[in-house]
Amino acid sequence: MEEFDFYPNKPELAEPKPQKNGGRTIFSIVLFVLSMLLVFSDEFSFIFFLVIVLLIHELGHFSMMKLFKYENVRLLFVPLMGAFVQGKKDLYKQSESILVILAGPIPGVLIGTLLLYFGVDLHQNVLIEIGGLFLFLNMINLLPIDPLDGGHILKIFINKNQELFQLIFSFISSLVLIGIGILINNWIIIIFGFLMGIRVRTIQKNYQIHKELKEENINFTTSYKLLSNKDFSKIKQVILSYSPSLRMYVDQLSSEETDPIIAGQVNNVLVTPIDRDASLFFKIVAIILWLAAFIVPIIVIANLDLKAYLNGL
Predict the structure, then answer these.
(1) Is there a contact between 210 and 271 (Cβ–Cβ < 8 Å)?
(2) Which of 151, 200, 248, 279 could, after both became Cys, cross-link 146 (CB 3.0–4.6 A)?
(3) How far is CA 313 from CA 124, 209, 306, 309, 310, in A?
(4) Residue 219 burial by CB count (10 A; 0-12/13-18/19+): exposed, middle or buried?
(5) Mean pLDDT across the stretch 37-61?
(6) Structure confidence by residue, pLDDT tens digits, 74-119
(7) How many Cβ atoms are within 10 Å of 95's Cβ, its own excluded?
(8) pTM of the entire structure?
(9) Are the beta carbons of 258 and 250 closer than 8 angstroms?
(10) Rounded Cα distance, 41 and 132, in Å
(11) Which 3 state secondary structure label does DSSP give 66?
């Protein structure tokens, strides 16, 4: 007998309709600038340069996602925090994911190195300032800390499906960020570290849910579109067992009111499959680029004798 004879059809997942996000991006940039002006009221030029650096970084991710046909790609700035690009696919490829990640910081490091070099050579302090900002933000972003780009690369290389590693890695990353924030007396980084701690709790909950689903041989490494009615029903029950408040909410309201919520919760638990298509040569080249982004700028700065130049101003 067919599956639908036993299990009801899963509800439709409310997907955001594809739309032009230029207006939202501009609006988020305005909010970001206003929030930064509240903290750095006398540093308008710094804020302007910061927006440029972040925008070029995120446009690198954005362009690669568009190239690889990601859906619902959007670029947004977060007040006092930074910026991000978001998009999705029904099946990720390891090689594409690595290129998407590297497309943000690698161009930024290259631009920063060139600006710093020509800034010193032409005695242009503005170029040195912008180049330094490009290098600082992009090199920091390549550190193997979650949720930075370097952390994402590390997870892809090791095994994106090893959730225990992700849990431990994210927990350590949150502690490192809090420690760095305390060390340099930067409350924004400290807050970001604590927000990461909240994210760790979500990862832990998903880890426990996935562990139970594995024990029951329920397939959760799939897209919502391909999820069977049987697996949806079982995942729903596991989620409700971990969320008493959600179960109470579901019991009190009609299915029409709760179906969109449940569909969203189930979709959040699913793990998008990743095709590990990257060859050993591809991985070696990616690692070389990753390391070069740290080593090359240091060599250039050492040869520029930047300290002597600044002392001569």
Answers:
(1) yes
(2) 151
(3) 11, 60, 11, 7, 5
(4) middle
(5) 89
(6) 999 988 888 899 888 888 899 999 999 999 999 999 999 999 988 8
(7) 18
(8) 0.80
(9) yes
(10) 21
(11) helix
